[in-house]
Protein backbone atom coordinates (compact mmCIF):
# COMPACT_ATOMS: atom_id res chain seq x y z
CA UNK A 1 0.00 0.00 0.00
CA UNK A 2 1.40 3.36 -1.05
CA UNK A 3 0.85 6.37 1.17
CA UNK A 4 0.58 9.65 -0.69
CA UNK A 5 1.78 12.66 1.22
CA UNK A 6 0.89 16.11 0.02
CA UNK A 7 2.91 19.15 0.92
CA UNK A 8 0.64 22.07 1.76
CA UNK A 9 1.15 25.81 1.85
CA UNK A 10 1.05 25.54 5.65
CA UNK A 11 4.09 23.23 5.54
CA UNK A 12 6.21 25.76 3.63
CA UNK A 13 4.95 29.20 4.66
CA UNK A 14 6.66 31.60 7.04
CA UNK A 15 4.36 32.09 10.04
CA UNK A 16 6.10 35.09 11.56
CA UNK A 17 4.93 37.82 9.16
CA UNK A 18 6.10 41.40 9.58
CA UNK A 19 3.19 43.83 9.15
CA UNK A 20 2.78 47.56 8.79
CA UNK A 21 -0.16 49.97 8.91
CA UNK A 22 -1.20 51.74 5.72
CA UNK A 23 -0.84 55.00 7.64
CA UNK A 24 2.90 54.46 8.23
CA UNK A 25 5.37 56.19 5.94
CA UNK A 26 7.43 54.50 3.24
CA UNK A 27 10.46 55.30 5.42
CA UNK A 28 8.88 53.35 8.30
CA UNK A 29 8.24 50.43 5.96
CA UNK A 30 11.82 50.48 4.65
CA UNK A 31 13.14 50.56 8.21
CA UNK A 32 10.98 47.57 9.21
CA UNK A 33 12.16 45.61 6.14
CA UNK A 34 15.78 46.41 6.95
CA UNK A 35 15.48 45.53 10.66
CA UNK A 36 13.69 42.25 9.96
CA UNK A 37 15.70 41.36 6.83
CA UNK A 38 12.58 40.86 4.69
CA UNK A 39 11.66 42.05 1.21
CA UNK A 40 8.02 42.82 1.88
CA UNK A 41 5.49 43.71 4.55
CA UNK A 42 1.83 42.77 4.74
CA UNK A 43 -0.32 45.85 5.28
CA UNK A 44 -2.82 45.45 8.12
CA UNK A 45 -4.90 48.08 9.88
CA UNK A 46 -7.13 45.84 11.93
CA UNK A 47 -7.06 42.07 11.87
CA UNK A 48 -7.57 41.52 8.15
CA UNK A 49 -4.67 42.04 5.73
CA UNK A 50 -5.33 44.76 3.14
CA UNK A 51 -2.29 44.77 0.89
CA UNK A 52 1.43 44.30 0.49
CA UNK A 53 4.36 46.68 0.15
CA UNK A 54 7.65 45.44 -1.28
CA UNK A 55 11.19 46.70 -1.73
CA UNK A 56 10.35 47.13 -5.39
CA UNK A 57 7.37 49.36 -4.51
CA UNK A 58 9.66 51.63 -2.51
CA UNK A 59 12.27 51.76 -5.25
CA UNK A 60 9.83 52.28 -8.14
CA UNK A 61 7.27 54.53 -6.46
CA UNK A 62 9.42 56.54 -4.05
CA UNK A 63 13.14 56.50 -4.81
CA UNK A 64 12.79 56.57 -8.62
CA UNK A 65 10.60 59.67 -8.34
CA UNK A 66 12.89 61.35 -5.81
CA UNK A 67 10.10 61.50 -3.23
CA UNK A 68 11.08 61.82 0.42
CA UNK A 69 10.17 58.46 1.97
CA UNK A 70 8.98 60.03 5.21
CA UNK A 71 6.45 62.14 3.30
CA UNK A 72 4.58 59.37 1.47
CA UNK A 73 2.35 56.80 3.16
CA UNK A 74 2.37 53.07 2.69
CA UNK A 75 -1.23 53.42 1.49
CA UNK A 76 0.00 55.41 -1.53
CA UNK A 77 2.56 52.83 -2.67
CA UNK A 78 1.20 49.43 -1.59
CA UNK A 79 -0.51 46.85 -3.79
CA UNK A 80 -4.08 46.94 -2.53
CA UNK A 81 -5.54 43.84 -4.15
CA UNK A 82 -3.71 41.36 -1.95
CA UNK A 83 -3.43 37.97 -3.56
CA UNK A 84 -4.17 35.30 -0.95
CA UNK A 85 -4.10 31.55 -0.60
CA UNK A 86 -5.53 29.17 1.99
CA UNK A 87 -2.93 27.34 4.14
CA UNK A 88 -4.50 23.98 3.29
CA UNK A 89 -3.89 24.26 -0.46
CA UNK A 90 -1.23 22.06 -2.02
CA UNK A 91 2.21 23.63 -2.48
CA UNK A 92 2.42 22.69 -6.16
CA UNK A 93 -0.88 24.50 -6.74
CA UNK A 94 0.53 27.58 -5.00
CA UNK A 95 3.68 27.47 -7.15
CA UNK A 96 1.62 27.27 -10.33
CA UNK A 97 -0.61 30.10 -9.15
CA UNK A 98 2.39 32.31 -8.32
CA UNK A 99 3.85 31.54 -11.73
CA UNK A 100 0.58 32.34 -13.51
CA UNK A 101 0.16 35.62 -11.61
CA UNK A 102 3.88 36.45 -12.05
CA UNK A 103 4.38 37.08 -8.33
CA UNK A 104 6.95 35.90 -5.78
CA UNK A 105 4.87 36.20 -2.62
CA UNK A 106 1.43 35.07 -1.46
CA UNK A 107 -0.37 36.07 1.71
CA UNK A 108 -1.63 32.97 3.53
CA UNK A 109 -5.07 33.78 4.88
CA UNK A 110 -7.75 31.61 6.49
CA UNK A 111 -11.18 33.06 7.22
CA UNK A 112 -9.86 36.62 6.93
CA UNK A 113 -6.98 36.05 9.37
CA UNK A 114 -3.36 36.31 8.25
CA UNK A 115 -1.62 33.00 8.97
CA UNK A 116 1.65 33.55 7.13
CA UNK A 117 3.38 34.38 3.89
CA UNK A 118 4.59 32.04 1.17
CA UNK A 119 7.56 33.12 -0.94
CA UNK A 120 9.43 31.59 -3.86
CA UNK A 121 12.29 30.95 -1.41
CA UNK A 122 9.93 29.06 0.92
CA UNK A 123 8.88 26.83 -1.97
CA UNK A 124 12.51 26.20 -2.90
CA UNK A 125 13.40 25.27 0.68
CA UNK A 126 10.61 22.70 0.99
CA UNK A 127 10.25 21.43 -2.55
CA UNK A 128 13.07 22.43 -4.94
CA UNK A 129 11.47 20.67 -7.89
CA UNK A 130 8.53 23.11 -7.80
CA UNK A 131 10.92 25.96 -8.60
CA UNK A 132 11.02 24.57 -12.13
CA UNK A 133 7.39 25.66 -12.49
CA UNK A 134 8.39 29.25 -11.72
CA UNK A 135 11.42 29.13 -14.04
CA UNK A 136 9.47 27.53 -16.90
CA UNK A 137 6.79 30.19 -16.67
CA UNK A 138 9.43 32.90 -16.88
CA UNK A 139 10.93 31.16 -19.91
CA UNK A 140 7.53 31.04 -21.66
CA UNK A 141 6.84 34.71 -20.83
CA UNK A 142 10.15 35.66 -22.40
CA UNK A 143 9.34 33.74 -25.58
CA UNK A 144 5.91 35.30 -26.10
CA UNK A 145 6.52 38.74 -27.58
CA UNK A 146 9.55 39.49 -25.44
CA UNK A 147 12.34 38.10 -27.58
CA UNK A 148 14.68 41.01 -26.82
CA UNK A 149 13.66 41.58 -23.21
CA UNK A 150 14.81 39.11 -20.53
CA UNK A 151 13.79 40.35 -17.08
CA UNK A 152 15.40 38.70 -14.05
CA UNK A 153 13.39 35.88 -12.46
CA UNK A 154 13.79 33.87 -9.24
CA UNK A 155 14.79 30.23 -9.42
CA UNK A 156 17.59 27.69 -9.52
CA UNK A 157 20.63 28.62 -11.61
CA UNK A 158 20.94 26.01 -14.35
CA UNK A 159 24.75 26.28 -14.24
CA UNK A 160 25.64 26.14 -10.52
CA UNK A 161 22.37 24.86 -8.99
CA UNK A 162 22.00 27.67 -6.42
CA UNK A 163 18.66 29.37 -5.78
CA UNK A 164 18.84 33.07 -6.64
CA UNK A 165 16.29 35.90 -6.68
CA UNK A 166 17.53 37.17 -10.04
CA UNK A 167 18.30 34.81 -12.90
CA UNK A 168 19.00 36.00 -16.44
CA UNK A 169 18.40 33.98 -19.58
CA UNK A 170 21.59 33.29 -21.52
CA UNK A 171 21.46 30.98 -24.55
CA UNK A 172 18.20 29.43 -23.34
CA UNK A 173 19.45 28.75 -19.79
CA UNK A 174 18.50 30.65 -16.64
CA UNK A 175 21.70 31.53 -14.77
CA UNK A 176 22.84 33.68 -11.82
CA UNK A 177 25.00 36.77 -12.22
CA UNK A 178 28.27 34.93 -11.46
CA UNK A 179 27.57 32.16 -13.95
CA UNK A 180 26.36 34.72 -16.49
CA UNK A 181 29.75 36.45 -16.30
CA UNK A 182 31.51 33.09 -16.72
CA UNK A 183 29.34 32.17 -19.71
CA UNK A 184 29.78 35.58 -21.33
CA UNK A 185 33.54 35.31 -20.75
CA UNK A 186 33.52 31.96 -22.59
CA UNK A 187 31.79 33.57 -25.57
CA UNK A 188 34.54 36.18 -26.05
Structure description:
Strand 8 and strand 9 (about 175) form a beta hairpin. This protein has 2 domains: about 10-125, CBS-domain (Roll); about 130-185, no CATH class. The protein has a 3-stranded mixed sheet with strand order 1-2-3. A 3-stranded mixed sheet has the order 4-5-6. It is an alpha/beta fold. It is about 35% helix and about 25% strand. The protein is globular, with a radius of gyration of 18 Å. It has helices spanning about 10, 25-35, 55-60, 75, 90-100, 120-125, 130-145, 175-185; strands spanning about 20, 40-45, 50-55, 85, 105-110, 115-120, 155, 165-170, 175.
Q: What is the helical fraction, as a range of percent?
A: 25-40%
- Terminal-residue CA separation: 56 Å
In total, the number of domains comes to 2
How many individual β-strands? 9
**Residues in β-strands, percent:** 15-25%
Structural class comes to alpha/beta
Q: Sheet with the most strands?
A: 3 strands, mixed
Envelope shape: globular
The CATH class name of the largest domain reads Alpha Beta
User: Poorly predicted ranges (pLDDT <50, ≥5 residues)?
Assistant: 145-150
CATH superfamily of the largest domain: CBS-domain
Q: Count of helices? A: 8
Across the major sheet, the strand order is: 1-2-3
Rg computed from alpha carbons, rounded to a whole number of angstroms: 18 Å
CATH architecture of the largest domain: Roll
**H/E series:** HEHEEHHEHEEHHEEEH
CATH topology of the largest domain: CBS-domain
